[in-house]
Design goal:
The chain has 17 helices and 15 strands. By secondary structure, the protein is an alpha/beta fold. The protein has 4 domains: 2-114, HprK N-terminal domain-like (Udp-n-acetylmuramoylalanyl-d-glutamate--2,6- Diaminopimelate Ligase, Chain: A, domain 1), CATH 3.40.1390; 135-230, no CATH class; 255-391, Reverse transcriptase/Diguanylate cyclase domain (Alpha-Beta Plaits, 2-Layer Sandwich), CATH 3.30.70.270; 398-489, no CATH class. A hairpin with a 5-residue loop joins strand 8 and strand 9 (185-190). Residues 428-483 form the PucR C-terminal helix-turn-helix domain. Residues 184-204 are annotated as: Disordered.
């Protein structure tokens, strides 16, 4: 409304009350009977004919009707008002103005200026559309929309996961949405600064903009202009992923992947492409979803986007129950494990995806065997939990057989002093790592990221608490029991009381 008043020659208008908050204007309504206000739409400026608004009581009634219809302003011929009428306008939040130019002339002028402003908006939208069409990536598109919306935040969201984002969130925003389905549908909703978007991920990728309330209508149109381009860029990314993964697709067929996600290389007609080039050090990675009923298709944009960020040069191939890739081991295995864990922690666990990996550091493994091991690791891995390396199969398998609650009860009985120690979590993690590394203090220290002297001190302390590592016949049970413990769920450690 302020833009409209500035555009209009406002010398003839006198504002008796103008709300401080920004308000949008959609229509100009000239009223000759008070009850006609009941027919106006929201966000309208209502003008009362000169022969109608001849008293404060008529203006008061018109203000109430305008408030009920969510009109933004009431304009009447020039006259004086009592403070009670102006106070009523304040209470209703409806702007109250008078004009000295005549109601009919003011109505025509405002209608002309509103049309000009709307034409300017259409011109801005056309210019935005042209810039969006030239954008080569989704971040560029979001940047263009955000700039047009005053640097408001604009995001591409899939299943509640933000794939791309640009801009900053304004105070007390409303949210404009565009679902990027085969038939785009815009959905608008309001939320406070701390509100939640709600569960919209099941509708597929969405463009979401959080803007000031006055920008909501423009934001809806801006998202609509960009929707087709964003959808085309998403499809282009999927096509690029498919082309990049084409060399791997034969491996999926050769591995004999069944619908339950297991790998079977028992078929005799698979002699070709059983191996990568001789001596190639690789790791097979499998991302598996427990519920394959449309979930893998629905979260595919999230998975491929996160994978591309983590491994931009490694293609990802689709399987019946998820995805797989063969990652060259150009970097140390520990760095690959860290990268995979960051991938798993980037929201994939919340979507039901688990990650398993199997290493072939010497490049001598059959591809089908390597994939089978990674697939089995992914089946035992927990969505949202740590990446499971096939080399550390024992503890995850034990957790399936021995729930954490039972493991805790058994540990409290077997190692009460250990569980009562304030450093129980560190000691248990050190013992497990030491046994994982086949009794190598140096390897355990590297795995834990501490000095080897620290590992030795913790192991000696563990021995004083009843964890004996000098008897080979006890190592397996000790290893499996401590590995099954959930260190985050250990009771608050207290010194044990003396037995009576």
């Amino acid at each position: 409304m302020r833009d409209l008043l500035v555009a209009h020659d406002s010398a003839g208008l006198t504002g008796h009350h103008i709300p401080s908050s920004a308000q949008s204007v959609r229509d100009i309504a000239l009223i000759t009977r008070v009850e006609q206000i009941l027919e106006v739409g929201p966000d309208s400026i209502v003008l009362l004919a000169e022969e109608l608004a001849l008293g404060g009581w008529v203006v008061s009634v018109a203000l109430r009707y305008a408030w009920e219809r969510r009109a933004v302003a009431l304009i009447v011929s020039e006259q004086s008002f009592s403070e009670s009428v102006i106070e009523l306008a304040r209470r209703f939040g409806v702007a109250l103005l008078t004009t000295s130019d005549g109601i009919d002339r003011t109505a025509l002028t405002l209608a002309r200026e509103l049309g000009a402003l709307e034409a300017g908006i259409l011109s801005r939208l056309d210019a935005l559309h042209s810039r969006v069409l030239r954008a080569a990536s989704i971040p560029e598109v979001l940047s263009e929309i955000s700039q047009e919306l005053g640097d408001a935040v604009v995001q591409l969201v899939v299943d509640g996961i933000v794939l791309e984002s640009h801009g900053t969130r304004p105070a007390e925003p409303v949210v404009a949405r565009l679902v990027l389905s085969p038939r785009d549908r815009g959905h608008r909703g309001q939320e406070g600064q701390h509100g939640q978007h709600g569960q919209h991920g099941q509708h597929g990728p969405e463009l979401v903009a959080a803007v000031a309330p006055v920008q909501q209508a423009f934001a809806d149109q801006a998202l609509a202009r960009a929707g087709m381009t964003v959808r085309a860029l998403l499809l282009q990314q999927e096509l690029d992923d498919l082309v990049g993964a084409a060399p791997l697709l034969s491996f999926a067929a050769l591995s004999g992947l069944r619908e339950d996600g297991a790998f079977d290389d028992s078929r005799s007609e698979q002699p070709a492409l059983r191996r990568l080039p001789s001596g190639t050090s690789v790791a097979a990675v499998v991302l598996r979803v427990a519920d394959v009923d449309q979930r893998s298709a629905r979260i595919a944009p999230v998975v491929t986007s996160r994978w591309r960020e983590t491994f931009p040069r490694v293609p990802l191939a689709r399987l019946q129950s998820g995805w797989f890739a063969l990652v060259p081991l150009a970097e140390p295995a520990a760095e690959l494990d860290d990268a995979l864990q960051r991938l798993a922690d980037s929201g994939l666990g919340d979507l039901g995806a688990a990650v398993g990996v199997a290493h072939d550091p010497h490049g001598t493994e059959q591809v089908t065997s390597l994939l089978r091991r990674a697939g089995l690791a992914a089946r035992l891995a927990e969505p949202g939990g740590p990446v499971l390396d096939f080399r550390r199969f024992g503890p995850p398998l034990l957790r399936r057989l021995l729930p954490a609650e039972d493991a805790l009860d058994l540990a409290l009985t077997t190692y009460p002093a250990l569980l009562a120690d304030p450093q129980a979590s560190e000691i248990i993690a050190t013992v497990v790592s030491y046994l994982d590394c086949a009794g190598s203090v140096t390897a355990a220290a590297e795995h834990l990221g501490v000095h080897r002297n620290t590992v030795q001190l913790r192991l000696r302390h563990a021995a004083t608490l009843g964890v004996t590592l000098s008897h080979p016949e006890r190592l397996l049970s000790t290893h499996l029991l401590l590995s099954a413990l959930d260190l985050r769920a250990l009771p608050v450690a207290t010194r044990p009381t003396a037995e009576l």
